[in-house]
Design a protein that fits this description.
By secondary structure, this protein is an alpha/beta fold. It has two domains: 2-100, Gcn5-related N-acetyltransferase (GNAT) (Aminopeptidase, 3-Layer(aba) Sandwich), CATH 3.40.630; 106-287, Vaccinia Virus protein VP39 (Rossmann fold). The chain contains seven helices and 14 strands. It has helices spanning 47-58, 78-86, 106-117, 133-142, 155-167, 215-228, 248-258, and strands at residues 2-6, 9-14, 17-26, 31-38, 68-73, 90-92, 95-100, 123-126, 147-152, 175-179, 194-200, 229-239, 265-269, 281-287. The strands form two sheets. It has a seven-stranded mixed sheet, covered by helices on one side. The chain has a seven-stranded mixed sheet with strand order 10-9-8-11-12-14-13, sandwiched between helices. Strand 8 (123-126), helix 4 and strand 9 form a beta-alpha-beta unit.
Length: 288
């Protein structure tokens, strides 16, 4: 089967025959599904579900990072109502509506925490730029008056970050990409000048999972980050464990965090109580 985008929606083809169509109207607040049609000869075989699922995928309806809103006409009968309900469409006034908000992930919690606690930051550091998600966030947080340093030891990570910044329209001069270990970040900035340093440990998404951060460099990097922070600055670190990555880095980082003196630092370990023990663990250090 093939899904083909048209001027006003999508067509579904089985070999050379068009067997379905979905027509859409895109608005500023929502995408309206004006019509979902399957050729009568091909109904009751799951093609309607396939078409709607693919359309939602194409338009970000299953994106965990971005909110979405879709609307459709009220169903004509119980069977049609059950079909739309299967895809989380529910009656709202004179139409069906499907709304999704981003899940609260460890990454989003870290970003929200920094956004809430930093006002007009001047210097932000992404110590593990990975695929560029945190780097792009820090660039937006820094705004025109701030700057960002982004570190990684894998050229592929810097390439991915560079492409993401360009895709999101972030000016080149706002971020400096650095191919070096985050343990050496003090070679690139003065102590006591950073508003925040972010770490998202683990592996580069889409790359070999056997290549990941380890305690031997992560702990020195965390220590360097504390020196880099100004008073009131924040260190954010997301820790990982699992079958491939093991538990040694996570445990070493937790031991290090617990030993930081209360007179100089406030330390938060934000465990999601109903998640697995191997779930990402967001941690924060506020320098007094």
């Amino acid at each position: 089967m093939r899904l083909v985008q048209t001027e006003n929606g999508f067509d579904l083809y089985k070999e050379k025959d068009r067997i379905g169509r979905c027509t859409l109207t895109a608005g500023a607040q929502e995408t309206r599904i004006d019509r979902l049609w399957i050729d009568p000869a091909w109904r009751r075989r799951g093609y309607g579900s396939y078409l709607l699922r693919q359309v939602l995928h194409q338009l970000g309806g299953y994106d965990r990072e971005q909110p979405s809103c879709f609307a459709a006409p009220l169903p004509a009968g119980a069977g049609e109502a059950a079909f739309w309900e299967k895809f989380d469409f529910h009656p709202q006034g004179d139409r069906l509506v499907r709304r999704r908000k981003p899940d609260l992930s460890a990454v989003r919690l870290a970003q929200d925490f920094l956004s809430a606690h930093l006002v007009q930051p001047r210097l932000l550091v992404d110590a593990t730029c990975g695929n560029g998600g945190d780097t792009a966030f820090l660039c937006r947080l820094a705004g025109e008056g701030g700057r960002v340093l982004a570190f990684d030891i894998q050229p592929a990570a810097l390439d991915s970050t560079r492409a993401r910044l360009a895709r999101e329209g972030i000016p080149e001069g706002r971020c400096r990409l650095i191919l070096d270990s985050h343990a050496r970040l003090l070679d690139y900035l003065q102590p006591g000048t950073a508003d925040a340093v972010m770490f998202n440990f683990g592996w580069l998404p889409g790359a070999d999972h056997t290549v990941h951060s380890q305690a031997g460099t992560s702990i020195p990097a965390l220590e360097a980050a504390l020196q880099a922070l100004r008073p009131g600055g924040i260190l954010s670190a997301i820790l990982y464990s699992g079958a491939v990555i093991g538990n040694s880095e996570k445990q070493a980082a937790l031991d290090w965090l617990q030993q930081l003196p209360l007179t100089r630092y406030t330390v938060l370990v934000c465990r999601f109580a109903n998640w697995a023990d191997t779930a990402p663990l967001p941690c924060f250090v506020i320098k007094k």
